[in-house]
Structures are given as C-alpha cells and as structure tokens.
Amino acid sequence: MSKNTVAGAQLDKILDRMQNDAAFREKLLGDPASALAEHGVDVDPATIPAVRTLPSADSIAQQRDALKSKVDGRVGLAFFLLST
C-alpha cells in the first residue's frame, strides 16, 4: 500500500475506532501519523492540517458509507475533512 492510502478493511477499523474509542479519537487529533500507524497507514505529515476536527461518533454511525466515499482511498487530511 502506498503512502497516504487506506484499504477498505483498514478504513472500517479506523472508522470503528473513531466511533467507539475516545482515546483513539484524541490520539488521532493530537498525533494523527502515530494513530494511523497503529493501523499500518503511513501518512505524510505534510498532508495533515494544523487545525483538525473529526465528525462526531453519532455522525460516523449514521453516515458511515458517505464518510467512506469521502476518504476514497486517501488518508492524510481526509479524516479531518469528514465533518458532516
């Protein structure tokens, strides 16, 4: 897998943790590269915005398919642009 990409199964696991694991959400906001590395995703730090927000856990649960289509194989800043 190339830098800044994520496969379907990886994305599902990351979204599960974003939805259900408050500590992971905090880590993803504070140190995205490290949080995503836990899932085997290598992120170029230059693609991560300085100011980050995540969709709420409820939003992830309700709009999971739409969120997955927004990421569309990319990671970097994509997770922080998911607000719905």
Task: Indicate the topology.
Blueprint: H1 8-20, H2 22-30, H3 32-37, H4 57-62, H5 64-71
Helix pairs in contact: 1-2
What does this structure look like?
With 84 residues, the chain is mostly helical. The protein starts with 7 loop residues before the first helix and ends in a 13-residue tail after the last helix. α1 crosses α2 (22-30). The protein has one domain (8-81). It is globular and about 30 Å long. The protein is built from five helices and no strands. The mean pLDDT is 79. It has helices spanning 8-20, 22-30, 32-37, 57-62, 64-71. Helices cover 50% and strands 0% of the residues.
Name the overall outline.
Answer: globular
Largest pleated sheet: none
Mean pLDDT across the residues is 79
| Record field, number of beta strands | 0
The residue ranges in which pLDDT falls below 50 over 5 or more consecutive positions are: none
What count of structural domains?
1
Radius of gyration: 11 Å
Distinctive features:
single chain; 84 residues; mainly alpha; 5 helices; 0% strand; globular
In summary, what is this structure?
This protein has about 80 residues and is an all-alpha fold. It is built from 5 helices and no strands.
